[in-house]
Write a structure and sequence with these properties.
It contains eleven helices and eight strands. Helix content is 51%, strand content 17%. It has an eight-stranded parallel beta barrel with strand order 1-2-3-4-5-6-7-8, surrounded by eight helices.
Length: 212
């Protein structure tokens, strides 16, 4: 099980870097655009704040451009790079070319058929947008998406990663369904921790207990 930070804000990456239980950082073009720094500087700073993977999403739309952009990203992030690629015909071709040397993630996957092709192309991750799928897909289809994608990837080395997770409740739903990787905004990561009964117990031990 791995929890990742979904953010390109340096301040948020600094916050979770002290926690010790956040395993990496995912970004996308919209997040990078709002970071306040250039994408290159942002990625370099993020990589310095986590020992885990840093996900960078390609913006080029043609195969040649994707391969070139992935090379530039690799020079910034090195072995920490996971290239996020949209599930277009050119994107699947890029994944098949890149996956021998660079970890790849097919992102914005909305069907198990796309997950199947991603696995065949050598992707390390398939990323679904959980909350968006529940909002935009027919109810039956969205309910089956996680299970069907997990079935499509069963027995392979490709992992399902859930993004667009808006609450601790959704995170638990995904874990219960068998998803091992979740990327969450800082607010949701923070909301996973507290519970009033835990705080009550801590106060009681502080008041009446003793230690070394």
């Amino acid at each position: 099980m791995s929890l990742l930070l979904d953010s390109a804000r340096i301040s948020e990456a600094e916050t979770v870097s002290h926690w010790g239980w956040v395993g990496g950082i995912t970004t996308n073009p919209a997040l990078l655009a709002g970071s306040g720094l250039s994408p290159t500087e942002t990625l370099a700073r993020l990589a310095s704040l986590t020992p885990g993977p840093v996900f960078y999403q390609l913006t080029a739309r043609d195969l040649e451009g994707m391969l070139e952009e992935a090379g530039r990203a690799a020079k910034i992030l090195g072995d920490q790079l996971v290239v996020k690629i949209m599930p277009t015909p050119a994107g699947f071709q890029a994944a098949a070319r890149l996956s021998e040397k660079i970890s790849c993630a097919l992102t914005a996957v909305f069907s198990p058929a796309q997950a199947l092709v991603a696995q065949a192309a050598g992707a390390r991750f398939v990323i679904i947008y959980y909350h968006r799928a529940r909002t935009l897909l027919p109810e039956a289809e969205s309910r089956q998406l996680v299970g069907d994608c997990l079935a499509a990837l069963s027995g392979s080395e490709t992992h399902l990663l859930a993004a667009s997770v808006k609450s601790p409740h959704e995170a638990i739903e995904l874990r219960r369904a068998g998803v091992e990787y979740l990327t969450l905004p800082l607010s949701v990561l923070e909301a996973l921790v507290p519970h009033p009964l835990s705080e009550q117990a801590a106060q009681e031990f502080q008041k009446h207990g003793a230690g070394i």
